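Posting this for the archive.
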Amino acid sequence: NLPFPDGCFDIVYSNGVLHHTPDTERAIDEVYRVLKPGGRAVIMLYCKTSFDYWFNRWFCEGLLLGRMFRSRNWLGNATEWPGARKSQTVINPITRCYTRGGIARLFHQFEDLRLRKSEFYFYLIPKLGRIYRRWQIKHYGVHPGGLLVYGEPWPIVSGVEVFLGRVVGWAWNIVAHKPERGDAP
């Protein structure tokens, strides 16, 4: 329960957090509760129908490296950015990934639900990705917020990565509105 009254925010923003909560459905219900009628939720949740989920996480890290057999929470560790894994002392004990239908069920109270996939990074492909990342930084430069947010240089993504992100991306970018009348449609 968020410590705010009903209908007090015009916008609620969450980037990559709610899929790590014990009850994501309840968290989305709280977002709905604290939004004013007509308010907007802007949320990012992990995508289950992505190249990164099936190839990098499940196949490479889970199966080939055997992490799914050694730890119940292997997916939480596998979903951390590679640089963050070295410095974090606590892994994500809960990590959920969603299909388009799962997102629709989570946001059933909202209207005007819009979904867009994003986040495909060549550098996350094992082995080849390290070589690509060095080339990418050399040719495209680094994002000024990379050190601040991620603690390491963050490459500017290529146009190809932006396109692939929309097709096979790791993240759902979600925008949904609370109905003006405030109750479920």
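Residues 68 and 96 are 15 Å apart (CA to CA). The first strand starts at residue 9 and ends at 15.
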